[in-house]
Amino acid sequence: xxxxxxxxxxxxxxxxxxxxxxxxxxxxxLWLGYTRAGQPGLTDAFIFSGLLSSFAMLGLxxxxxxxxxxxxxxxxxxxxxxxxxxxxAGVNKELDTHGARYLGDLAAAAQGLAGQLGDSALSAAxxxxxxxxxxxxxxxxxxxxxxxxxxxxVMASPAHQIVLxxxxxxxxxxxxxxxxxxxxxxxxxxxxxLEAAYGRLVRSGMEVQAEVxxxxxxxxxxxxxxxxxxxxxYIILFxxxxxxxxxxxxxxxxxxxxxxxxxxxxxxxxxxxxxSYVVFDTETTGLxxxxxxxxxxxxxxxxxxxxxxxxxxxxxVDPGTPxxxxxxxxxxxxxxxxxxxxxxxxxxxxxHRFASDxxxxxxxxxxxxxFLRRHAKRAGVSWDQPILDTVLLSAVLFGASQSHTxxxxxxxxxxxxxxxxxxxxMGDAQATAEVFCKMLPMLxxxxxxxxxxxxxxxxxxxxxxxxxx
Length: 469
Prior knowledge:
Blueprint: H1 7-37, H2 43-88, H3 106-148, E1 152-156, E2 162-165, H4 167-173, H5 191-204, E3 208-213, E4 220-227, E5 234-238, E6 254-255, E7 276-284, E8 294-303, E9 306-316, H6 325-331, H7 335-338, H8 344-354, E10 359-362, H9 365-374, H10 376-379, E11 387-389, H11 390-398, H12 406-412, H13 425-445, H14 451-458
GO molecular function, one term: DNA binding
Keywords: Exonuclease, Hydrolase, Membrane, Nuclease, Transmembrane, Transmembrane helix
Domain Exonuclease: 276-445
């Protein structure tokens, strides 16, 4: 059980035990001396001596503990977090060893190991980059081929989750909801009709044709469902007759074949790498959620520890009130820019659909979520998605005593925010997403591989910021 406690807490408990032990020994010695003295008139003197020595013992232990905490426990935590960042998050800058100057040769040894690891990682990265360049070229050719063929193509897992979609399919899916990797097909197609067609496919093992309504019932799609041979899942081809395809629609090919192996488990038991995330940020008219308003929302999706190209949500929001000049100076959104933009009800509904099947991630989530939840009734939505906060994740990985601002995290994990994008909703969302993607393997390396384990750990830092789950 003690091994689950942080190093700083264990050292604190050790000194508490040392202080209590010292007080007990001193008290016992004074009691023995008093009983041997056999002089009742010395009672007050013995009690005074006992109290004085007890307070002195407490003060001494507290002082030495503070020195240990500042010069041993905190530096060890920072050193461990720094090495973990280099081992699992691709950070290459030198370790800050000044804070660990009282740890003997440990800091120098860690720096040497980190440097060796960095050289090895660089060599491996160069080899991977050469292979990746070839794979990216093949992917680009495949994407161009699929996009040029006037048949929208979607690959789905046996659980009817999207595994692949091409540019044509993105245009079709967008007529119902934002196209999203790992999203349920029931967001786009009538679930009853789709499952009936899939049942025929499973029974026959051969291609089947079906007319399936859209999820909203506003249109009908001519579909062809094809099996994947011995692999799980199936392919859906949208015939163009009712698809409403535009001839110039283009979009990157989006896929992750690992999603074919669908994990069926409760959220708390699901691995972090198997979840879908929506990372978002807002810009507002001020810093008071109970009276200020949102003027911009930016969000993007992370699946399998990577940001999905093209899956973004970005909108200006008409706050219905003048934007203070001081706020415009920070985020650059002016009254003229939000004229004709959707109000918060419409914008929140759109964002809610984009994030409906994902874990929401934000930096200082209570602030952004307070704005959205205040207008939940107006938007007709319920913000009950699970939430991760990068402030709390930072406290878990780097220690509560460290700085947890977005700028500090970006510097620590070598994430660059272009100055023109800082304090814009999409710019900050992009930075938060990159930070989050580097945090995920670090959390898993700490043994926090499931959502439930991470939430249990973040709740230990509730004094920093409210946990939203």
